[in-house]
Every structure is written in structure tokens, then in C-alpha cells.
Amino acid sequence: GGGGGHLRAGRAGAARSGGRGGGGGRRGRAAGSRGRPGGARGGGQEERLPHGVRAGVGLRCHAGPRRGDGGRLRRRAPLRRRARAPARPPPRPRRARARRRRAPPALPPLRRLRRPRRRRGVSNYCRERLHVVLSKELRRPPSDLGEMSDVDMKEHWDDLFTRCFQTVDDEVSGLASRLVHGQPRSDPIAAENVGSTAVAVVVCSSHVVVANCGDSRIVLSRGKEPVALSIDQKPDRKDERARIEAAGGKVIQWNGHRVSGILAMSRSIGDRYLKPYIIPKPEVTIVPRAKDDDCLILASDGLWDVVSNEEACKVARRQIQQWHKNNSVTTSSSDGGDGSTDPAAQAAADYLTRLALKKGSQDNITVIVVDLKPRRKPKNNS
């Protein structure tokens, strides 16, 4: 009979089918197998494969055409190896993927998110308390201010504002008691590393008195020209640096000049962890009033970092005039002291705040505008 349908290639070389009538009807084996005709071991003769047989060393092969019943030839489809796809990492669990999608966005820089919140408690307390303490100090003048000389008046206002700012600083630090719902309390307002700047102004009939503690600023618009009534108290000022070093402190250059490498201002209310280098004593300035005085602008460095004094005064004047032009309401000046809000000045302050935000201010912004004109009447376009 014929040889077997499947052949295996031996280690010696190419495979071949068994001879006719040889091997007792057994399947063909590799060349050089025992008991097969024509299968001499390493005989040196070229091994011949039957027609249609494909073979290879160490590979399993098939006979091509195969005789079946009736003498017909049947072809067997060759084996095809499928290419394996590269291994993929197992999918993440649904819970993990859901948590990844719900992750909060990146926080803004630490400095841009923490400072307004860190100083909010002290700044709010100064807003509610500073003018109350100042009013109490103003009710007990030592003598008639009209009889004082300029030097005596300067000393009087220096002492008055110094006592006022020191009282508020003691209450913030817990060194002095305060009334809360009628009950005395002496605990600190905030932590020892919390503080705030403060600027105050007293508008008299003949003078404007300004007190500044920190890097906030007050600017007077006079005759379409800006007049700075305060100087920013920074550690890089020669007089401030000398005072800090005389008290045993250091001014370190770290993203700007800072007291002990931390605080970028040399005076503030609070910040008791940097005392005695940081003091609450304000700098007082007295300026006589003039007829061409338009308005005062009190603002924190969030405005002055991006808006110049000239631009701020120009915008404030324009907004006040525009409000009176669009509204037929006559508003009195802030000299009355009734505590009412001037809508024209409020519109100017709101516009300056939006302008600072539009210019990309990275600091907290506080703006107050004081209209110094006694009365403004809308112009008659007719």
C-alpha cells in the first residue's frame, strides 16, 4: 500500500515516505530509521521526497496531493499561522476610571489661593473696628485744633492714629479685651501668622489727614494730576530696612525683599510671629485741601500692581462725571459724615476693581473712592 498521509521530519535531515511493501504497512518515518528499505544511516546518497511532499527540519509537514478512492486527487489546505496581536494591559476597573474622571482640576498656584483667605479675618476686623476706635479718639481732643501750629497738629494726629492702630493690633493679637455680643473676650482674632494692611483718611474742611500701615496706598486727584499721599512701606526702603535690622531682624531677597524671607511689607496689623520687626505704627500725612481736588482713591496693592496712579485718577474722574451725566440726582459730598454711600463714587470704585481684574491682577483687591466736590450737578445738554 501507499505511505502514510502525515510525515514528520527527523533530526538527520529531510523526511521521506516509506517504500512500497516495506515496513509492514507502517507510516513512513524519518530518514535513517531502522527496518526500512532504502533508509541507510547517513548513506551519503541524496534523500528524495515523493511528489508533493513538503518537509523541513523540526517542522511538521503534510503530503500535498493525496490519492483517495477512485484515483482522484484531493488537495489539503496548508496550515496558516495567524499573527498574534500585541498584548494589551487589562482594562481598569470602572470605579477607578470614574474616580479619575471626577478628580478636581489643578489648584492654582499656592501663593494665588491662600493669601486672600489667610488675611481675610484680620482685614474684616479692621474694616469693622478701625473707624470705631478712631471716632472714640476724635471725641477727646486735647485743645482747639485751630490754635495749634503745624508741628503740634502733626504730633497730635500722629499720636491719635498710633493709639488707634495699636489698639486694634492688640485686640487682633489677644493682648487687649474686646466686646463680642456684650461679653468681653481676649482671645486672638486669628493665628499668629495672619495680618493685614490698613489705610485710613480723615477729611476735614481744611485738611486731609492720611494714615497708612503697610503697602496699601491713597492717591489724591487734584487738577487732573495724581498726588500720592502715602508711601508704600516695603522692606527695601532704606529707613524701613535700617529699623528692621536695628530690631534684630533680617531682610532677605526671596522673590522680592521680605522680612525674614516671609513678609513683603514692613508694617501691618497682626503678624505677631514677626514682631518686633513688623510694627502697626502708621505713617501720617497732612495735606491742605484745594478747590481743584476731585477725589481720593484708597486701594490695596491688588489695584496698584497693575494700574498706575495717573490711570486710576483719570478713570475715577471720568466715572464720577459719567454717572452724574446719566443721572439727574444731585448728591452731596462725603463731608457730611452721615455714612451714606455715594453712588457716583461707588460706580468709580466698582469700575476700578473690574479694571484691575481685566489687567490680570494676582492679588486681593480693595478700592474706596471719596468724592471731594461739595456738590455735583448734572450738566444740561440743552
Structural description of this entry:
With 382 residues, this protein is α+β, with helices and mostly antiparallel strands. It has a domain at 291-327 and 341-372. It is built from eight helices and 19 strands. It has helices at 94-101, 110-118, 120-138, 150-173, 238-246, 301-304, 309-326, 343-358; strands at 6-8, 60-62, 65-67, 73-75, 178-180, 183-185, 195-196, 198-203, 207-213, 217-222, 225-228, 251-253, 257-259, 269-270, 283-288, 293-299, 331-332, 367-371, 375-376. Strand 5 (178-180) and strand 6 (183-185) form a beta hairpin. Residues 1-121, 326-345 are annotated as: Disordered. This is protein-serine/threonine phosphatase. It comes from Aegilops tauschii subsp. strangulata.
How does the SSE layout of this entry go?
Elements (H helix, E strand, L loop, with lengths): L5 E3 L51 E3 L2 E3 L5 E3 L18 H8 L8 H9 L1 H19 L11 H24 L4 E3 L2 E3 L9 E2 L1 E6 L3 E7 L3 E6 L2 E4 L9 H9 L4 E3 L3 E3 L9 E2 L12 E6 L4 E7 L1 H4 L4 H18 L4 E2 L10 H16 L8 E5 L3 E2 L6
Antiparallel strand pairs: 1-2, 3-4, 5-6, 7-14, 8-9, 9-15, 10-11, 10-16, 12-13, 16-18, 17-19
Protein name: protein-serine/threonine phosphatase
Enzyme class: hydrolase
Catalytic activity: O-phospho-L-threonyl-[protein] + H2O = L-threonyl-[protein] + phosphate; O-phospho-L-seryl-[protein] + H2O = L-seryl-[protein] + phosphate
Summarize the structure.
Residues 101-372 form the PPM-type phosphatase domain. The protein has helices at 94-101, 110-118, 120-138, 150-173, 238-246, 301-304, 309-326, 343-358; strands at 6-8, 60-62, 65-67, 73-75, 178-180, 183-185, 195-196, 198-203, 207-213, 217-222, 225-228, 251-253, 257-259, 269-270, 283-288, 293-299, 331-332, 367-371, 375-376.
